[in-house]
Amino acid sequence: MTSTATHGVPAVDGFETELSIGGMTCASCSARIEKKLNRMDGVTASVNLATEKAKVSYGNGVDVADLVATVEKLGYSARELLPPEPAPEPEPEAAAAPATGGGAPDAQGESDAAVSALRQRLLVSAVLALPVVLLAMVPALQFDNWQWLSLTLAAPVVVWGGLPFHRATWANAKHAAATMDTLISVGTLAAFGWSLWALFFGDAGMPGMRHGFDLTISRADGTSTIYLEVAAGVITFILLGRYLEARSKRKAGAALRALLELGAKDVSVLRDGGTEVRIPVDRLTVGDLFVVRPGEKIATDGTVTEGTSAVDASMLTGESVPADVAVGDSVAGGCVNTSGRLVVEATRVGSDTQLARMAKLVEDAQAGKAAVQRLADRISAVFVPVVMLIAIATLGTWLAVTGDATAAFTAAVAVLIIACPCALGLATPTALMVGTGRGAQLGILIKGPEVLESTRRVDTVVLDKTGTVTSGRIRLQEVYAADGTDEQTLLRLSGALEHASEHPVAQAIADGAAARVGTLPAAESFENVAGLGVRGTVDGHRVLVGRERLLAEARIALPDGLADAKAAAEAQGRTAVAVAWDGEARGVLTVADAVKETSAEAVGRLRGLGLRPVLLTGDNQAVADAVAAEVGIDEVYAEVLPQDKVAVVERLRQEGRTVAMVGDGVNDAAALATADLGLAMGTGTDAAIEAGDLTLVRGDLRVAADAIRLSRRTLATIKGNLFWAFGYNVAALPLAAAGLLNPMIAGAAMAFSSVFVVTNSLRLRSFT
Prior knowledge:
The protein is an alpha+beta fold. The chain folds into five domains: about 10-80, 2-Layer Sandwich (Alpha-Beta Plaits); about 115-250 and about 370-430 and about 715-765, no CATH class; about 265-355, Calcium-transporting ATPase, cytoplasmic transduction domain A, CATH 2.70.150.10; about 455-470 and about 595-705, HAD superfamily/HAD-like (Rossmann fold), CATH 3.40.50.1000; about 470-595, 3-Layer(aba) Sandwich (Calcium-transporting ATPase, cytoplasmic domain N), CATH 3.40.1110. The strands form five sheets. It has a seven-stranded mixed β-sheet, with helices on both faces. Strand 1 and strand 2 (about 15-20) form a beta hairpin. Helix 6 (about 180-200) runs antiparallel to helix 12 (about 405-420). It is elongated.
């Protein structure tokens, strides 16, 4: 069936759309959906488990309704994600009213609701399951009819708490598929079903029944044995793992939201000969003139038609020093106007802007970075059917050899119960909880198990310069005083004049001067000379501070010593500012983004882990080389535009390297998502933090080395836990099939496997 309406965005060879997919629980789910969609004629699909989205390209013979129907036939939900409709342009008298959102449901709100529901399911199940487990495993707590209390408490856990697993099992069964959900559902229902049979038709319901704690291996009377603690405990442990996973997955798309939220929400456009009208940004069109006041974000990419100012583009370009702009200069949407009023003509809007293209880069990088399929999911494809076959074979063999239906069913159920992944459910979340808890104490946030595999293979670490290796804030550096000029006086007069300016370079000089000489006097007759500097009177002296050209216009030349100092500073990529008063050049001040005190030590630690450091920056080559030399890095990529940072990372990967990227700005977000391992500095932007796999909260580059070590240790712990969890199943299954597995031994073995996994994970608390 093909409907008459076709949504989606026109593409070169047809249409493109994005679907929101619901109900996926593991990598095999996304793989099954992707495989089914790609079997449709003219359809190319990529399904991302982490973002729960499918990007689909399709031809004229297919429409979105067909795509949605195909997904729904597999037992999952699907809906098209439509782009938001432009808001209507307000009338001039209503221009001040804030824009309100609407349209499609808030995906983040839906995700939060799902996580909240899972948390409620976990808490209720845990409260009910705890006494069931204690009563079964501690004989001293048992009393007359305790088993009926256990049934009352366990039933809601198995039926309501395990409902997501039962639903997924049924949906998979209809398509002849099996996942870990299948094993969880079948194992817990088998344990619960056998317990019901033993309670109502066997001897387990007798008032004086007790569960002993006999560790000998012998054939057991199945009619007096119940497995309620197994059923309730497994459901609760698996819910815990799913909850931790859901919390991590909820933030998967936050990098894109953080990028898009950097843009302005509304803008003042000039209408009818200069009248300002406030409209939503999505109503802007190419050619519109709009006003940007000091402190406001530039609404979209454009060209300055009126005014001068300094624009802070650090969030987009990584440049630490704001750039002076005047009439004719280009500006990018999302940047912040720091001083003067600007009128800008829009040249690019919507998806064509630099900010939108960067968001697209992050989205593409995340979509192309397939989630690592967890070991449990990979093994379950074989493990689950094998366990089923063993259980059926056990039942048939016992019936054929002994003819004892009770013994046969007991052995078959024991096979299913011993295969219940109790320790398997704890293997990953407990190691993650302890590892991430210890990491938080050290200033390291690990987002989930998917990111850990990369840390073992990383051999190259790419370091963004601004905000990562350096502080990201310009500060006063060297002070060069002319012969006969006192340095304190130079700082006092220049700092006082710069204090009256809003320019970021001026503020850096003023702050540095105040820190070195104390309170600064007030400036009089202050004047800002656009693009050149400032002039005014301080303590009776006529002072000029700014570019060399400002002094030249006052017929003041720099002496050779100051000219050499200025040239040397600029050769190192620093900003040099000339100072003169009373008709003579008095000094040169330099400002720059300072290297963090710990960066050199951090680079040494990274080398000690066998990693090759690379410096990557949008700053000029001179600045990059100076910083690299100071911290001990040999490989440098400078003057790299934000979109080109991704290309550098890809080039290194094509050379056969496994790349980790450390950054802190929006301009690093796409590269962080593209790299094999992204480490975001927590002192940076939300976009960078959400795009990274690891977050370094303290903003100290030395933590990057600790993060990699902790991640490797956590991964090794998870693998050890998984090995034990599966090893215990492999060793116990033959005993269960032979009818030699006492139910209490099964319970004790399961408890011991869980204790072992937790204890092994707790060793991460000693990580230093």
